[in-house]
Write a structure and sequence with these properties.
419 residues; 0% strand; 2 domains
């Protein structure tokens, strides 16, 4: 073959790689958009998670202005998670064959409107209604976005692209929520929601401008979603995910009183520890993404073992080594938990390569349901057994996830990066 023919062939291959192909429901990846599109999707995940968690740093001023207790104000977070868990599978069924770019843009518009509605809510009822809308938008965006990497970049880049999309979760904890709290402190909690609404509008523009058309010739059916539960690797992945997330949130929701009790941590120190946790989680997301691309089971085995050990060792280390010892373990905790989302999603994509959106819908539903269940179980443990009970419960659930990863059916060796 001549050099000119080789060059021509290479150009044709590159052109095919850049151009979208017809998607067949997950069997053939649709390429197009590239890294700018992946970046827009990552901005979308950052925006939805920041929108979800924004009230965390604003609960006190919200409760004070609207005349409700901190517990009632906290429903603004709980309601969003529960609605997202229900919305993910329902919306996946309802959107049918609609272009996913259009659907993502519409959902981002819903998120923007919901944040603006929260900014002008005169009472807690209206605020909770706005948070229901956030849950709808969040569940829908996650169900579509979490499996999009394979449709946007070449096969060899899917693992890195998936990690970038999921980095929005950790980035929201490190940057989004603290930034919202800062805006709330400087200009009031309503201003924080206005800024979030503007951020949603900017992401909407980016999605429309940077994503290629994402047609879906095969609509997701209820039978298809439920049918995935008959696959042992899918069931194992969902159980593993539920135990990991519930265990983490059972303990992490109450990490402040744990650190205060066992390590004598002061408020300023706790803020620093939580920042370190978030930064470590961001690093863990990218490390786990690379490992999960080779073997999701191996990645999750390591995550489960490290996470269980870190959680269970926080109290004795805090008693023995004080704040700095406990902080080091919390950083390891963050590093391990940062890899949960991308590794579990990679497991499910490998277990159901022919039904990625349905698997993503189940992923989002189980993930958000586990958050609510873990936080509730942690609260009951804290009331009944004290802060030590919270740690033991979280560690036991994560240990259960480790046992599930060892004994359960895993996906084929070739992961979701495959076409």
């Amino acid at each position: 073959m001549s050099k000119s023919e080789s060059a021509a062939g290479a150009l044709e291959d590159a052109a095919r790689e850049r151009q979208p192909s017809v998607d067949d429901g997950g069997l053939t990846p649709l390429r197009g958009g590239g890294w700018p599109a992946v970046g827009a999707v990552a901005a979308g995940t950052f925006t939805v998670v920041t929108s979800e968690m924004l009230p965390v740093g604003l609960l006190t001023p919200i409760g004070r202005e609207l005349g409700v207790t901190d517990g009632t104000a906290g429903l603004t977070v709980t309601v969003t998670g529960v609605v997202a868990a229900l919305a993910a599978p329902v919306l996946t069924l309802l959107i049918g064959r609609r272009d996913r770019r259009t659907v993502l843009a519409a959902l981002m518009a819903v998120l923007g409107a919901a944040n603006l509605l929260a900014a002008y809510a005169p009472n807690i009822v209206m605020l909770l209604a706005s948070r229901v809308l956030v849950g709808v938008g969040m569940g829908g965006v996650w169900a579509i976005a979490s499996g999009l990497a394979v449709r946007l970049v070449p096969e060899r880049r899917v693992a890195a692209a998936t990690s970038l999309i999921f980095s929005g979760v950790a980035a929201a904890s490190v940057l989004g929520v603290p930034a919202g709290a800062l805006v709330g402190e400087l200009a009031g909690w309503r201003a924080a929601f206005v800024v979030m609404g503007g951020g949603c509008a900017a992401v909407l523009v980016a999605l429309v401008a940077l994503l290629p058309p994402l047609p879906a010739p095969g609509a997701v059916r209820l039978g298809g979603v439920l049918g995935l539960l008959r696959r042992p690797p899918v069931r194992t992945g969902l159980v593993l995910l539920a135990l990991l997330v519930a265990g983490h949130f059972a303990a992490y929701t109450y990490v402040r009183p744990v650190l205060e009790t066992v390590a004598g941590a002061r408020p300023g120190q706790i803020s620093t520890v939580l920042l370190v946790f978030g930064v470590a989680g961001l690093a863990g997301n990218f490390l786990a993404g690379a490992g999960a691309a080779r073997s999701p089971r191996s990645a999750l085995l390591v995550i489960c073992a490290v996470l269980a050990g870190a959680v269970l060792l926080v109290p004795p280390t805090g008693y023995a080594a004080g704040v700095f010892g406990a902080a080091a373990l919390v950083a390891v905790w963050g590093l391990a938990y940062g890899g949960v989302s991308v590794s579990a999603q990679t497991w499910l994509m490998a277990a159901a390569p022919d039904a990625r959106e349905a698997a993503s819908a189940l992923f989002v539903a189980v993930f958000n349901g586990a958050i609510a269940a873990g936080a509730l179980a942690g609260g009951l443990a804290a009331d009944g057994w004290g802060t030590g009970g919270v740690i033991w419960l979280g560690g036991a659930l994560v240990a259960g996830a480790l046992l599930t990863a060892v004994l359960g059916s895993g996906p084929a060796r070739r992961t979701a990066t495959a076409g």
